[in-house]
Design a protein that fits this description.
about 425 residues, alpha/beta, TIM Barrel, eight-stranded parallel β-sheet, 12 helices, 20 strands, about 25% strand, globular
Amino acid sequence: MKGHYCTVQRITEKVVQRNGTIEKRRLVTYGCNTHDLLASNEVDGMIESTRNVPAYANALAHFGEANSRTFIATPALLCDVALLVSNIEGMADEARASDVSLRPHLKSHKSAFILELQLKAGACGVACAKLGEAEAIIEARGKGAAVLSVLLTSPLVGHHAALRAVTLAARCDLIAVVDHVDGVDELAHALVDTNATIAVLCDVDVGLGRTGVTTPTDALLVAERVGQFPQLVFSGVQGYGGHLQHIAGREHRRTQTTAAMKRLQSVIDALESNGHDVSVRTGGGTGTSSIDIELGVLNELQPGSYVFMDREYRDALGDDREGRFQQSLTILTSVISANHEGFVTVDAGLKSMATDAGPAAVVGNEEATFAFFGDEQGMVTNGAGPAFRRGERLELVPPHCDPTIDKYDVIWLVHDDVVVDVIDVTARGRSQ
């Protein structure tokens, strides 16, 4: 970002004890003119077990030096730290100016480090798609951290999941969504003989069809069942329109979002007319964030991808207001073979990125195209200008950032050609 810089001021180490084992953590002190979000702020870097991966050794040996990004083993995830901070601040500023709470979704970055930046920028808590994500983040934050508000955005099912939720509730302010009375009963039974309480939201289907009650009557049944158990507190509704986020054209996206919010409002009206508290009205995403604020039904937003962005969002949002967030995340890849005239082979293939949203885009060369070339390789056509050479490094815009993140152990934070930090993907693989 023009006029922004970020440098490493100091690197130290501390020793922490976790689950009976001793780990070393690297502390990085940043100096940035982006905002106080990173300036003079000490944050945990990689844990020792991750740092000992041989592939990372060369880049870590040149940590903080000019041109250090050239030592990163590929394929790898890069994140421009200034753009990351700008995106975090941009969403936080809009939510704050609109008097709407911001509860960013962890599923996009799965990183305790990035979550801390979001909390410092004003987020009211975190949204987690799965129990495993929430458990990993709470564990990573440690016992000394402030109590975190955690919303589980997917309904739980079964006694064991309910028991895990109760255990988690002892370590955070837990909010669970439910779309069936059986889910209420499972949580209530798991709470017996404990001192814990869990806030409950009724999950409402606003057109996606994935989860949620489909009628106001079903929502009333959920709220009434919650009211039968003193350790459960009915607190509102969730209405997430995942099907709305990538609709191309803002007016079309706004029309569809308006219809979805009317469905949610009908449930809110029914609940309130029957005396139920609906103080929390959460949902939304990156693609509808500003539209949700304009419509005024939600008072809490759950965007996730805005911290990174991806090719799918770029294609859908274009120059719309919701597309103002910058592409901070790229995949660094190396040309491993250049024996053909029209294309080269790179070391990023099916295992290196999500494949549900089409191919990646090649950074800095709009005429070059990427195609999957196997599990471990990709094909990049030679676009305008000189042909790509063996050993040359390219950057790709991932098609879909959320599942791409889950394929990597770490994210390399860079500014220009300098590696300024490397952070764990804390909740990688925690989909249970």
